[in-house]
Write a structure and sequence with these properties.
The protein is mainly β and 230 residues long. 0% of the residues lie in helices and 25% in strands. The strands form 6 sheets. Strands 1-2 form a two-stranded antiparallel ribbon. A two-stranded antiparallel sheet has the order 3-4.
């Protein structure tokens, strides 16, 4: 078959592709010749003895896998190709090439300080007990890695004053603050009014003049005696 209308007899380039038959790997196919651009078509377009080589379809991005299946060229990203061997980064293959974003170190616990040490290349979650403070006087505030805040009971018998002296000395029992006994404020002075102030404790106010004050002496008329102004 004469592809170039030049006649087959002594025709040195049957397909007319300017690649002589002697060197043309497909002398009857004008689309195949030395110097042609390789296409994804299952043919050795440029006569280099390689059919659809991946290098001919490279997207110049080192982390993609370039493949021609004979019809279609694909460029599949490979995150593994971007692995920098560091725990502090998340390696991925993007359209522009490899990216190495900082790793998410958050462990979801509010009482730990999370970080990734670039020197040791290790993610750490340091417990901070102070972040677990619950204001409970009879519990220990402890941050446990992988768990979070815990509040075990403190030792029984520890003081846990509530700031009110009138209800006595409170002590810890089984993780709770147990109330103490009422503060005894009686001073045995009949001429004072005894009371307990939640802030001041015992107070002894002078009774008003004329207030009866039995002195306990049978030889005196206690019911008629009264205090005098002090």
């Amino acid at each position: 078959m004469d592809q170039d209308a030049a006649g087959d007899v002594c025709d040195l380039d049957d397909d007319g592709d300017l690649d002589p038959d002697a060197t043309d790997c497909a002398p009857m196919d004008a689309t195949v010749r030395h110097g042609a651009t390789e296409a994804c078509n299952g043919k050795d377009d440029d006569c280099d003895q390689a059919i659809d080589p991946a290098t001919a379809f490279s997207d110049a991005i080192a982390c993609t896998v370039d493949v021609c299946d004979g019809q279609t060229v694909t460029h599949t990203p490979s995150d593994a190709a971007c692995d920098d061997g560091k725990a502090c980064t998340v390696d991925a293959c993007a359209k522009t090439g490899c990216t190495h974003a900082p790793v998410n170190v958050d462990d979801g616990l509010s009482c730990t300080t999370d970080a990734c040490d670039p020197v040791t290349d290790a993610v750490t979650h340091v417990p901070v007990d102070a972040l677990c403070a619950d204001a409970g006087p009879c519990t220990l505030d402890v941050c446990v890695e992988g768990v979070g805040c815990t509040h075990p009971a403190s030792a029984d018998g520890l003081p846990c004053a509530d700031g009110n002296p009138c209800n006595g000395d409170e002590l810890c029992q089984f993780g709770t603050c147990a109330p103490g006994g009422a503060l005894a404020c009686a001073d045995a002075d009949p001429c004072t009014a005894d009371a307990c102030d939640p802030k001041l404790g015992c107070v002894h106010s002078v009774a008003a003049p004329g207030t009866p004050c039995d002195d306990g002496d049978a030889c005196t008329d206690g019911d008629s005696r009264s205090v005098t102004a002090r």
